[in-house]
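Milestone 3.1: sequence recovery, worked example.
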């Protein structure tokens, strides 16, 4: 894949973000991380998504250093864990993340999950980190429309990215439309549905017509909908395959057929259920 084929999305704060990225959830030891990051680097990924809660910021930082990937070629995302929310805790935890990642700035910092009790305190810390240029862009993860509306009532800086679960069995079109309206880029986590959607017969048929894998069809579908994606794999061949999605197109009928697979099936937690949004945010 050449650099020219790598699309970038413009964020509302003026920065750009690669549309394709690499998720490192569950990459747990240095050797596995190094192999995965080396394969991702060869395949043209620049964006890497980690989180304080994954416990692997240190081995990711070490992988970047050992592979001597220049910082300017990297777009690094981490997320503030629930236990680290609040004003002081957020500032302290980000300082630690920077040390572990062996960098002096983050490209994008996300609130991992909406937590009612620390909602605005956490965001104030995010705004300060942005003002101090420790973080270039700030965003959220697992926010529904109600969370975004609530944040907008007191935020000075609006989030520029909302990272949410998204795949053919959970397409979340109303939330994507709301993100777009608010000039927020939607970034799909578990874009492959953690493997659950890979056996789908509709996807298998489209894949065979294009001589592509089912994973490539799903990732291409996300790209054509304008979403950012962060597929994870620890297999070098699949890491390369997941990046080879910029030299073919799905037609309108195929896009519609995939959209029809939505069955509101989550692979992860539902922010509304976990954080009792309806009770707490009104
Ligand atoms: P995913 O990327 O949808 O799927 C990963 C699974 O699919 C792994 O089991 C992987 O196995 C397999 N896979 C990957 N490429 C494949 C291919 N081409 N063919 C067949 N199987 C393939 O799920 P995810 O890891 O849950 O999500 C991706 C990233 O999103 C995470 O790493 C993390 O960075 C982020 N995330 C964020 C949140 C949040 O709350 N913000 C939550 C979950 C995840 P192998 O590794 O064996 O290839």
């Amino acid at each position: 894949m050449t650099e020219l084929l790598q699309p970038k999305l413009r964020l509302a704060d003026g920065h750009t973000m690669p549309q394709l990225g690499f998720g490192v959830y569950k990459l747990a030891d240095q050797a596995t991380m190094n192999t995965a990051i080396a394969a991702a680097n060869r395949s043209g990924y620049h964006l890497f998504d980690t989180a304080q809660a994954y416990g692997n910021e240190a081995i990711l930082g070490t992988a970047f250093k050992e592979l001597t990937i220049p910082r300017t070629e990297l777009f690094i995302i981490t997320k503030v864990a629930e236990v680290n929310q609040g004003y002081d805790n957020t500032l302290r935890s980000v300082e630690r993340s920077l040390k572990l990642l062996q960098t002096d700035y983050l490209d994008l910092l996300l609130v991992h999950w909406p937590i009612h009790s620390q909602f605005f305190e956490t965001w104030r810390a995010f705004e300060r980190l942005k003002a101090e240029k420790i973080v270039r862009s700030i965003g959220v993860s697992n926010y529904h429309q109600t969370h975004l509306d609530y944040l907008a009532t007191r935020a000075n800086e609006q989030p520029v990215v909302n990272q949410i679960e998204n795949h053919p069995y959970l397409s979340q079109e109303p939330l994507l439309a709301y993100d777009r309206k608010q000039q927020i880029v939607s970034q799909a986590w578990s874009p492959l549905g953690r493997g659950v959607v890979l056996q789908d017969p509709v996807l298998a048929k489209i894949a065979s017509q294009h001589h592509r894998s089912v994973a490539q069809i799903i990732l291409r579908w996300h790209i054509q909908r304008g979403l950012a994606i962060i597929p994870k794999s620890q297999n070098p061949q699949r890491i390369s395959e997941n990046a080879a999605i910029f030299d073919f197109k799905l037609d309108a009928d195929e896009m519609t057929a995939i959209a029809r697979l939505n069955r509101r099936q989550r692979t992860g937690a539902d922010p509304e259920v976990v954080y009792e949004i309806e009770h707490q945010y009104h």
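The longest helix spans residues 87-101. Residues 23-25, 49, 112, 141-142, 163, 189-195, 198, 213, 215, 230-235, 238, 241-242, 268 surround NAP (CB under 6 Å).
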